Amino acid sequence: MRTLVLILDLCGTFAFALSGAMAGVRRRLDIFGILVLSFAAATSGGIARDLLIGAAPPAALQDWRYLAVSLAAGLLCFFWSSLIERLRNPVRMLDSLGLALFAVAGAEKALVFGLSPVMAALLGMLTGIGGGVARDVLLAEIPTVLRSDFYAVAALVGAAVVVGGNMLHFPIVATALAGGLACFCLRMTAIRRGWQLPLARESREHPFSEK
Amino acid sequence: MRTLVLILDLCGTFAFALSGAMAGVRRRLDIFGILVLSFAAATSGGIARDLLIGAAPPAALQDWRYLAVSLAAGLLCFFWSSLIERLRNPVRMLDSLGLALFAVAGAEKALVFGLSPVMAALLGMLTGIGGGVARDVLLAEIPTVLRSDFYAVAALVGAAVVVGGNMLHFPIVATALAGGLACFCLRMTAIRRGWQLPLARESREHPFSEK
Amino acid sequence: MRTLVLILDLCGTFAFALSGAMAGVRRRLDIFGILVLSFAAATSGGIARDLLIGAAPPAALQDWRYLAVSLAAGLLCFFWSSLIERLRNPVRMLDSLGLALFAVAGAEKALVFGLSPVMAALLGMLTGIGGGVARDVLLAEIPTVLRSDFYAVAALVGAAVVVGGNMLHFPIVATALAGGLACFCLRMTAIRRGWQLPLARESREHPFSEK
Questions:
Q1: Average pLDDT over residues A107-111
Q2: How far is CA C44 from the centre of its chain?
Q3: CA–CA separation, B103 vs B25, rounded Å?
Q4: B210 vs C61, C137, C144: nearest CB
Q5: Helix ranges restricted to H, chain B
Q6: Residues B26-84: pLDDT tens digits?
Q7: B118 vs C64, C84, C144: nearest CB
Q8: Are A39 and A67 within 8 A, CB to CB?
Q9: Would you kindly state where each structural domain of chain C is located, as residue ranges?
């Protein structure tokens, strides 16, 4: 069981690292920049969660396997980026799997550290989407997760299922499975059907002064 | 008294969340992105302060009311953004109020956690401006607070008054009031008179290599 | 000895603060923005390391000298930016010195806090490059360290020497000197010879969907 979770977790790390590395390849970063983006995309969500719940040093800095898997994904993209681009569909499925695993694991860890149910669900979502946000901030772009798409909502639903199951004292394995499945299926369906969240109506007034 | 502080604090949170949400509406984010920006703009300053002083998990993740107020502000902007744009002046006043409250509260919390007076004043300022910085970084823009305007200085003055009063052992309520008023009045006057900080003189040399 | 380390550390802080302030001057920030960039560029690497290893509040917030040196560098750039641009070579040397010192000190602090050797070397590198990353993120640019150049690798080598020496139980002063020298010489040689890391080959396929 524990080995299975670890393998799934490393698969998710690998998928997220691929997304970071490919973004770096497209922006013509050098090999170092690509490896940094791999590691940042794979681990920032978990690192942010661990800092916020007070679990320093973060898990991603305590287990060398996350680093190793991230670097392997980065090197793969550096040398065979056109191959990875052709494997778009399996990579996307791996990415959805990673999202589901990270959301579930993030929510569970937040509960263990005593956060309230609502915040645990949010931290689960943050664990899932944080890597992509860090990747995009490092590339000086508006995070795609804020822009479009059903990505974060799927993570939030998965995390909420875990939190709900915990409140109802359901067995942890069952709720983790249910949450992960909910997130994964929602995300895959959203990709297949092109689901989008609504945008705000265009405003025609002159811009409101920021600050 | 405690209730009054809470109400003021939630007013500030609301104002900051509005600024985040309006920025998201203008960039055509989806509803999820707008809610994330609301929450980030309202709470990042306090979260950064809490992480820096070692108070994890941050207060914003322990009290659901900050989340609820942020989401309410985000939904308001999503559905009635043109209304909010028309209410520019009251929103600005609310924002200045939020700045004053956050700067004062941030400085006091840093003092309680044993930081030195200078650093407590800086952390008070950070509490006030951090939300706007996070909002702008997420939108891939140079933070407006770095660019122009008397915003951060007002927060710093308010925080410094609190710290000074603490060093002179003045009663805490009096110094908090004085600090908050100083920040609020300075900010409102700066808006009304168009005060700006000086810019560096344009350099005509070729750019200095960064790194 | 301890005084020497402090002086070198403050020299590094000064050099990093100069790089932040000059970047701010070039983007026409106001005086406040320039001072923020000075402090951020000088201390973000160390602050990130301290948060990650659980050493809050970070050292940069506990010793007023880092703040004072950063502000002095910022004011210098604000008033005499053309002078600093003309002193490009000494400033670069100072910057390489700062990189070496920060990488060595960062790796040693991470070891003291019980991180594994690989992670300690990474955190040493992060201490060296974090300031530049924060400066560029605040300016909404892709961090130059991800883009080109032998900067991060020099920091990593210096940190790795420290960690290796620690594992072999060599005296700490000797390994610190060796690590710092390795980093400094590598960086200066890379500048003089124009060493670059390899870029990924341009891909001609249509872009891989991110997320």
A1: 90
A2: 9
A3: 27
A4: C144
A5: 2-26, 31-53, 64-86, 88-112, 117-138, 151-167, 172-193
A6: 888 888 889 999 999 999 999 999 999 988 788 888 888 899 999 999 999 888 877 77
A7: C64
A8: yes
A9: 2-193
